[in-house]
Every structure is written in C-alpha cells, then in structure tokens.
Write a structure and sequence with these properties.
Layout (H helix, E strand, L loop, with lengths): L11 E6 L20 E2 L3 E2 L1 H10 L4 E6 L4 H10 L10 E6 L13 H6 L2 H7 L3 E6 L3 E2 L3 H11 L3 E9 L7 E5 L5 E6 L13 E12 H13 L7 H12 L2 E5 L15 E2 L4 H10 L27 E3 L1 E2 L2 E2 L1 E3 L2 E2 L4 E3 L2 E3 L2 E2 L4 E2 L4 E7 L4 E2 L4 E7 L4 E2 L4 E2 L3 H5 L3 E2 L5 E3 L1 H10 L1
Parallel strand pairs: 1-4, 1-6, 4-5, 8-12, 14-19, 17-20, 18-21, 19-22, 20-23, 21-23, 22-24, 23-25, 24-26, 25-27, 25-29
Antiparallel strand pairs: 2-3, 6-11, 7-13, 8-11, 9-10, 9-11, 15-16, 28-29
Length: 421
C-alpha cells in the first residue's frame, strides 16, 4: 500500500545490518545467521526490522549479509520479493562480496555501509536509517525520522529506557535534558542516569538516522582513518557526539503497541534463555507482543500448508494443546502439548508430552517422549521414549543445557545420541 508522499519515509531507505552470527545462541546459529533464526511460530527475526520499515512507509531497503547467509537470503527472496521497481520500490540483498578488494570483507557495521555507497547513491534518498536485523520489536520509524529532521541533528540514536543496573550490558547515552547526547559509553561500569530519572539509563538500540549526504562523508573519512574499527558504535557515533550534534530518540515515543497501556516491548533474543523465554511468552493469555495486530502486521514468507490437525481422543492418548501456539501443517497425534510454541509442520506422536517447548519447523517427536523446557532445532527427529528437561546432568551429556536450564537439541546432537545407543 502506497503512503502519502509527504511522509519523510518516502524519502528514506532502511539499511539492515544482518551479517552477524549471534554466537551466544550457540549451535542454533551453526547453520544460519542470527537474523535468520526462527521466531514466533512462522517468522524469522529479521522480519521485525523489515516489517517495521514497510509499515512505516519505507519502500527502499537493503540488507547486508555475511555469516552463513544462504538461509537468510533464501527467506528474503521467498518472503520479501513483492517490491516493484516500477513503483520505485527496492529490496537489495548485499552479501559481502569483496567489492573494495579481493581480501576485503565487511570489517564492521560502518564498513558494510561504506562498501555499498554507490548502491545507496542510486536510491536517490535524503535519509538513511541504519537498523540491526536481530531484535524483536515494533516501531514506527516515521516518528524518529521527523524528530531527527526537526532537531537538525547530525545523527539521531534510538534508545531504550532501562534500569541503570541493566545498562552495564549496553552502549549507554549520557544526555542533556534537551535529548542531546554528550557522551557515548560502551558497557560502562557506572552508567549515567537519565535527566530527572536517577534509577534509569538510555541504552542504544543500534538504530541510527542520518541525512545521507552527511553519513556518506562520514563513511569516506572513517574508511581513510587507519585507527578506525569501521563500526558505528565504536567510531562513527562517538565522533559525532564529540564533533557534531547527536540526539537521543526514546523508543517509547515510537513503539507500536496493541493497546494504550501495553508495556514497551523490545527483546534481544541473543541467548538461548532469552530466545526460549520470548517465544514461550507468546503463549500467555495476553502477550506483550501482539502478533495478531492487523494494523502493524509482521510480514514473512508463508508456506502453503494445511491447517493444524489434532487426532486421537483416548485416555492418556489425546491430541490436545493448552496455552500453546500451533502453526499450520502440524499434526498433534495423541500428544499433550502445554505452554509450547510449535512452528510449521511439527509432527508429534502418541503418548508423548511437550511442556514449555519451542519446536522449530518440521520436527518429529516420537512416541512416549517427554520434553520439558526445550528448544528443538529445525528438522530434528526426537526418538521414541526420550526424556529431556528432568535431569540436567543427563541432558548435558548429549545436548546443550543453558544457564537457565533450557535444553537445546540439534540434528548434530541427536546424531551423536543415536549413534551411542
């Protein structure tokens, strides 16, 4: 749907940084980049940044990829191929391709943009929004764009309001009452408080708005500086804070909520525990993240699959799901599913139980299996009678057990387990 041309978003492009592995997700990112990790039953993590841009009225996007990008590229080609060049709409996928030299891959977030300057020039845009492709949230970028233009800033940084005790894990903004950033501190031991909020701090979301002509010049200068690490958070933003004007934009001012009293929702699902928790939270009666909101939908690739099917109705062999999300193509055959999230095509067999399980697409759960507090990777076959989540020491012998007691099961782990039986 075309937006009115007076929106700033019609003069902007979104540049999504999606090259990172996300190593804290351990084996879940062995075969895919973090932005390509599944989330919420049918989407991928990157769909949130792209959907936010689309819903905000942005019709020019680029995605920079690097680490094991095939899964991500294939998803974007299948699910995001509806842009039409004749309507001045574009979505370009920009793998690291040695465009500067034969041994020069993307060396940092700023370098990923610098190496594609000519492509961005061809978009003929006034503004560029730099986005991280690995967070879960809903945000209207038009609000942040307008704030940036009205302030006259060189850069506007999207910021989360977090307790000071938690801010030690973020890049933190020290700001004046006007919102001007006076210092950018990376994971400070003593985070500076917000003006008038002594217990809270402003943490960077990795979202930046620039006028393209200004950012272009900054990138050229940064690429020529031998001491630079070619990174927005380490180099570009601190330089602007010192020598220019950087403003903070509070996420709560542009967060899209399904009701007026809903809490601000932003999640970095970068650890197994955070990933599992964010998915399981969607099974709540009224989850903080509303995937049913037609006014701000999360677009994705939707497979053509039949509806979910529940079969058998005998004592101890009843196909049922309680407080769970069950995606299309699933067959729940004589299985009890509770507080779980099942992605497309999951097939469970008789007399098995799933409790607080995140099952990625096309898993198969054998008969009499009992799974609790687990993540099952794409295509894993759980053998008959396997018990997981009741004895962490036994689980850790074959599978990955997180600090929070969540068990990850991948194909490689399952192969080793089966070979030893």
């Amino acid at each position: 749907m075309q937006r009115p041309n007076h929106r700033l978003s019609s003069r902007a492009m979104a540049f999504v940084l999606a090259g990172g592995r996300g190593s804290r997700l351990r084996e879940l990112t062995d075969m895919r980049a973090k932005p390509a990790v599944y989330f919420g039953g049918k989407t991928r993590i990157i769909d949130f940044a792209l959907s936010n841009a689309l819903n905000s009225g942005i019709r020019k996007m680029a995605i920079a990829t690097q680490y094991k990008a095939h899964s991500l590229i294939r998803h974007c080609q299948r699910g995001w191929s509806f842009f039409r060049a004749e309507r001045n709409e574009y979505l370009d996928i920009l793998p690291a391709s040695q465009r500067v030299s034969e041994n020069h891959w993307y060396e940092g977030t700023a370098d990923a943009v610098f190496q594609n300057i000519d492509i961005i020039d061809s978009y003929d845009v006034d503004y560029v929004i730099i986005l991280a492709g690995d967070h879960i949230y809903k945000m209207d970028y038009e609000v942040m764009l307008r704030e940036h233009v009205e302030s006259g800033a060189d850069v506007t940084v999207g910021c989360l309001t977090v307790p000071r005790a938690e801010a030690v894990a973020f890049g933190v903004m020290d700001v004046e009452a006007s919102g001007r950033i006076t210092a950018f501190l990376e994971k400070p031991a003593d985070p500076p408080a917000m003006p008038g909020e002594p217990t809270k701090a402003l943490a960077s979301m990795g979202i930046y708005v620039f006028k393209w002509s200004f950012l272009r010049q900054m990138l050229v200068e940064d690429a020529a500086a031998p001491s630079s690490s070619r990174d927005f958070g380490s180099d570009i933003i601190p330089h602007i804070v010192t020598h220019g004007t950087a403003m903070a934009h509070k996420f709560e001012d542009s967060c899209v909520r399904h009701r007026s009293d809903a809490p601000v929702y932003w999640r970095d699902v970068g650890t197994l525990d955070a990933f599992w928790r964010a998915n399981i939270d969607l099974t709540d009666f009224d989850p903080d993240l509303d995937l049913w909101d037609k006014d701000w939908p999360i677009w994705t690739y939707s497979e053509s699959v039949p509806p979910a099917k529940f079969i058998h109705n005998e004592e101890a062999r009843r196909g049922l799901a309680v407080s769970s999300l069950v995606s299309g193509g699933c067959i729940i055959s004589g299985t009890e599913v509770r507080n779980s999230l099942l992605f497309t095509g999951v097939h469970t067999n008789s007399w098995s139980t799933l409790d607080e399980v995140v099952a990625l697409p096309y898993c198969v759960v054998g008969r009499h299996a009992r799974l609790t507090r687990a993540i099952i990777d794409h295509g894993v076959h759980i053998p008959e009678g396997l018990v997981v989540g009741e004895d962490p020491i036994a689980d850790a012998k074959w599978f990955r057990v997180s600090e929070g007691g969540v068990t990850l099961i991948t194909k490689g782990m399952m192969d080793r387990y089966n070979a030893a039986q």
